[in-house]
Amino acid sequence: MSLHLHRVAAFSASILIGGLALTACGANEAADSGSGDSAEGGATIALLLPESKTTRYEAFDKPLFEAAVAELCDDCTVDYYNADQDEAKQQQQVTTALNAGADVLVLDPVNGAGATGMVSEAQGQDVPVIAYDRFIAGADYYMSFDNETVGQLQGEALVEAMGDEGNILMLNGAPSDPNAAQFKAGAHSVIDASGLTILEEYDNPDWSPENAQQWTTDQLSKYDASEIDGVYAANDGQAGGVVAALTGSGVALDALPPITGQDAEIAAIQRILAGEQAMTIYKPIPIEAETAAEVAVYLANGEDVPDTTETGVDQTEYEGVASFIFDPIIVTAENVADTVIADGFYDASDICTGDYADDCEAAGIS
Fold this sequence. Notes:
The protein is 36% helix and 19% strand. It is built from twelve helices and 14 strands.
């Protein structure tokens, strides 16, 4: 079996994957959210994602996973569910997927700590569970990026941009998201050892840009914008909310403090090229989605999962769960062309639109 990603177009997330051969399975017809329809006689893989406010899930994880399963398995079906950040809804979706005959669950939990019951429900019906992107104790497999390293890279970039001194606001992810705790720990390990001072800190309950904007606006009633020398934002959506709050208070775009991010969203890449955001973390979602698809198909077919996947990732262990862990990549204006564009994650034409054309030209992107 050989799995090769040729191209991922920006928000259409169109992809071509070539040269796959795994135990017979076939054309995947992804079900609409929660449809529960299965291919006649084929395996059913349920993909359960946590929310849709973060661009990556609908634009990348879902279509990439579905396309990889389709290439690997001729008669497999992917039943797709999105919980919209509602833990109770996700629990019902797990039950629905199992009742519809799912052979494998690929579960990205709204609340990792609260998802152990979902794992037990599935395993009680001999259905294996892949914890996707967020850890769940007791899952059969887990795959994600090195999340503490993500936070460390963000913290290091912020310290470097600020010169190891100054005041910052710190916006973390949802307390229910185990990844958010790891991002936060990694960032604190750098920031707490630096000369930066955290004025205020916020754990955003649903990662929403709207909450980030409102919270930042509230801080601007306590502190003058000139007192905020930098902002740690755990992801790009929140970074966008911070930019909106600061510019809404009168800060000029060219006077914004360094702001971090994560997910390499197009809007963030454009802000980085325009000098409005310091950096983002690029987590190559294709390798995560394709590895998850490969492992899911092996499990659906009752086959052993190899120690090294066709995507070239070695199996390891995390908190007692067999795992595949991927490396994050820091993106700044200097390496946009060498990372997200070179990998085919975005085309230059996706990024270099309107007012950003000149910024692309200045960065040598065409």
